[in-house]
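Late entry, written up from scratch paper. The run itself happened at the end of the previous shift, but nothing got recorded in the book at the time, so transcribing now.
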Amino acid sequence: MRAETAERSQPVHDVSCGRALRERALGRAGSPNPVPPGLVAAIAAEIEAHCGHRLLKCRRLAMGWTVIQAVAAAHRLVEAENLAKVGLSERSWKDWEAGVLPSPDYQDLLCRLFATNPVLLGFARDYSPPPADPLWSGTTVNATLPTEPASAGGTSPVNGAEVAETKRRDAVKLAGLAFAAPAAAAQILEQAAAEAMEFTRQAEATSLGSGTLDHLDLAVTEFNHAYSLRPPKLVFDAVMDYRRKVDGLLKAKRTHRQERELLAFAGWLSELLAWLAHDLGDARTGLAFATDAFVHGQQAGHGQLCAWAMDAAASINLYEQRPGRARDAALKGLAEAPAGHPLTVRLHAQAARAAAADGDAEGFAAAFHAAEDAHRLLPPRSPRRFGMDVLPLADYALTSYPATSCIWLGQADQARQHAERALATYEAAPEASRSPSREAIARIDLALAHAQLGDPDDAVALGHQALDSARVVDSVRHRAGDLTTFLTRRYPRQAAVEGLRERLAAVDAAARPALASVPSPGK
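Output as recorded:
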């Protein structure tokens, strides 16, 4: 039985090849239903030999299951046999098929599911002696040891033989096993197998429960879904609680693989906390968590996480009127972002927005063109982040960011056009992916464009619509403050302008209690 960790030199075939082998084998057997375990094992062996998949995947294909069906079957088995509940997910199964070793509990579950043993699923090696192995038949292996060449001084064949024999004995002492009798060799190998098992146990020794990582994956997914739908303080508190728990897990005993995953989960939670702190008006805490997310992403070897962290840092610095730092964060994120990912579009657009905030029209144009070029080069299939399509974030950046930028550059007509497109894009999004705060900011950009173009009535009406949003976070209040400041300066005696300013003051006052209780990292 070759080890699953061995280098695979043969090309791996598409799963359709394995399915075809299964169908042919079932046809030859008369299409039995259910398929006997012995036939499943034979089909799995044929798929493994022909297609080059790992043994667990071969066994699944031999059963005719997709990953989703296999996970569902495992959960049914747990329920039917009254086993301990598990948090098995599609993600974990794919990791196992890619070569990640399941925990002992999950190995037991998979062996039950496929009615087989760990060796035939690639989780262990079979150390039973092959019947024709010369080591076990007592045959020596002298041919593998070096022989002494004749010396230049004409050493006699007898002396040469003695030297060669001595060297062979020394080599045997070093090898230990080469000339051992079968019983002694068996004892040595038995001890080595026990040591190998201990090595494996130590590598797998962990304080994490079998479903901890799956639970964290689900929790981070739910938190990201709740981000735009629930009050930011409520989400912040829940995410902060999980962030502390992950920090505790990182201090406990875990495997190297688990450590990388925990580092990544810690980073993702901190990235979300950065945005939530920003929404709650605490830039210092937001930037601290963005930095924490970046550092944990680096430790986990997760470039995409690092790039998302710098996207958050760029936005927070922009609202803090630090365009230079915002641009630096965007460029730092671009150095980590995967090629062809929608995040590259967003980071180029962040750099463009930073240039505009600095009054650099040429820099804005160059960075925005780079964002448009990156958008055109995106692949047909968009990646997902915690179950959500990330392409809309790139699309939004190409509409809302230039609207804000043109406001800052005094290009009112272009700002109006961009803001109208951004608002239409947000309103056309499916209900599940709508972002009330982004829609509100698009309305404020449009209001500022109308105000710059000499239409205060429409500007005030759009400002009130923005404050009617279900999610008036700090960035919305911040931009609404820009609007009221501009309107008050341009139209100082308009009652409607004063009414909008007073309403914003009341909204700010209501938000202050939440801001006072935002903890920063380490507190």
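Residues 14 and 70 are 18 Å apart (CA to CA).
(Scratch paper discarded after transcription.)
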